[in-house]
Amino acid sequence: MKNLFLLLIISLIVISLHAQETKPVSKIPSVSLKTLDGKNFNTANISNDGKPIIISFWALWCKPCQKELDAFNEHYAEWQKETGVKIYAVSIDDSRSTAKVLPLVDGKSWEFEVLLDANSDFKRAMNVNMIPHTFLLNAEGNIVSQHTSYFEGSELELYKEVKKLAGVK
Amino acid sequence: MGFSIKAQDFINNATINGSFQVDGQFYKVDEALGITDSAIGGHKIGLNGFGKITYNYGNFSAGMRYEAFLTPIAGFDPRQEGNGFPNIWANYNTDLISVTVGSFYDQFGNGLIFRTYEEWTLGYDNALNGIRIVLRPTNGITLKGLYGSQRYFWEKYEKGSRGIVRGMDAEFDINSLVSKWDDSKVRVVAGISGVSKYQKDADPLYYLPENVGTLAGRINVNVGKFGFMTEYGNKINDPSAINNYIYKGGQSILSSVSYSQKGFGVSLQAKRVDNMSYKSDRTVTANALDINFLPPINRTHAYSLTAKYPYATQPNGEAGLQFQLNYKIPKASKLGGKYGTGIAVNFSQVNDIVRNKVNDTTAIGESGTLGYTSEFFQISDKVFFRDFNIDIDHKFNAKWKAVVQYMNLYYDIATLQGHPDEEAVKANIILADVTWSFQSEKSIRFELQNMWTKQDKGDWMSALIEYTIAPKWYFTLADQYNYGNTDKNARDHYYIVSAGYTKDASRIALTYGRQSEGVLCVGGVCRQVPSSSGLTVTITTSF
Description:
The structure holds two protein chains of two kinds. By secondary structure, chain A is of the alpha/beta class. Chain A has helices at 2-20, 63-83, 98-107, 121-125, 154-166, and strands spanning 32-35, 40-42, 53-58, 86-91, 113-116, 133-137, 143-148. Chain A has one domain (24-166): Glutaredoxin. In chain A, α2 packs parallel to α5. Chain A is globular, with a radius of gyration of 19 Å. Chain A starts with a helix and ends with a helix. In chain A, 50% of the residues are buried. Chain B is mostly beta strands. Chains A and B meet through α1, α2, α3, α4 and β7 of A and α1, β1, β2, β14 and β15 of B.
């Protein structure tokens, strides 16, 4: 009986390995989020044609998060032109305030992609303890660095890394 | 030996990540704040910590979370005390199917009938321990089925010790289902869900329903810049300690409409809750074992004085309204200046519902009866909470920027904090938050707040100065001063000194001094804190 169980596990492993061979290992876990217009969005689809990606976790009740995103927004057009970087701002606001997210995003004229993680599934999957928490992804979609908290000017440090990834001086 | 290579693959191509945090508090006696030797009672150190590890390999992932509350820090439920692995789970996930066994978190729609979640800083965790299956048979349809028992501090589930929760949810993204509607300007997402809890009736007095069912339906419509969302939830009779064992059914509705375009957004939200507490143990009144989530829709404030009187949903009945407007005065206009000026206006009010007698001989809310009747559109004159606030933010030049905020508050402290006979708090608050970036990575932030009120503890003021060196260091000095307390001996200062260092996703922060209750935002992050005096240490990391 024990051997049968072992055999079963081994065959399961072998099968899953074969099934996996074609798929690259991505460091971004697959979690279903919502876009601001109510569509489903799977985080496995976070991509940017081989250019760097920034993922930033924020919430309406978090002032430093909004300061960080305001700072990103101020430079975004310039950053995109220079490096092609794409920013995803993931709101962890729950149903008490999801309805307030879109007016705030538009009211602040934020230009980047905003996703709703209403039950913190993506936050948990990415092991975010405190916000703001920002991830930088390379061309292959692997996490190359992450940072928690925001102080005035932190965005410049981050952009240096983005430039390095994009090969821009 | 093809397999041994494969087995290595299982290790090499897998990723392991996780996170870790310890919050420690070292208390000292502070008689002015009422923290005496006997109040501490030998409880000189509080330590809350967790470590979480997740293993990912292709479509498979598994993880566990260890927690130790030895002893829990002040303000946490004493039943948190303990250590062990409360959460262990494994998941297999493809485009078609996702199966989870162990502890998991999920919600149906807005959570009106089902939501499990955890909030570390609050010590809240109602995880479902069981099995969940999610099916996506075709693009646009998501079906969920789940069952299990909920986490109740460290109490293990045993036969009959608490209820069993079972639920199903179906969501349809109409535009994805009908190919010619794929590019339509009108987007419709609709969902329906049902939950049932089973708990044995062991009551000596009443004949109680052992299976309590809830049903909810929701729809989300977007037409260009307009958005509309509504969800309605209904519960059959569920006599419990919270509703004083009445046999009335429950209802809740949450709706919102919004319009927004670049530079301008408005949203209006309304909700009604009537006897909608839904717990997997009918005898529990504490903040635990909730199956559903009734969102408080008012704004969650981020500054210490504006967050002093936060609202909490009244599950037995409330009717509320919320309005939010965001506008950005464009760049290069007269009022906007070089960078534009942001304006946010927010209003919310929550009243009680009207309850009428079931018949002439039954008092309203009498145990063992139908309790009361309530007309859907009748709203009581009794106000629980009202909040009107305006924010203006402006960047003057590359070095200076500021936020100013005004808030007018009405807070029924008798109901919301259970202080009967106390007069409702009526307060005005003004604050300014100014940042001076004198070098590209060095800046100083000043915060000044004042609260005027004649009720509760009277007037408060708060001042803060913070020096930051991006992206690693911060140093903060702050004081909250209760200068308007009618009791002259209670006009206390709540001073703190704080410093922290962040590298990548690791952070260590030390705070010494007195903390009053509320949401505290220091050094780049926000968390909820109880009142205390002494030294606080937080160490956190993710990998």
